[in-house]
Amino acid sequence: MLRAAPTVGPTLLAASLAAALPLPACAPPAEEPDAGLPDGPTVLWVEPADGATDVAINPIVRVGVSDHLDDRTVSGGAFKLYSGPLSYWMMAYYDPVARRVVAWPSSKLRENAEWVFEAQAGIEARDGGPLAAGRLTGFRTGAATGDDQPFAAAEYLGDIAPIFGSRCASCHGGAAPIAGLALDTGAGVVDTALGIPSDGDAEMDRVTPARPGQSFLIYKIIDDAPVSGDRMPRSFDEDAPAAPLSPDEQQIISDWIAGGAAIGP
Ligand code: HEC
Question: Is the N or the C terminus of the chain less surrounded, counting Cβ atoms within 10 Å?
Answer without folding.
Answer: C
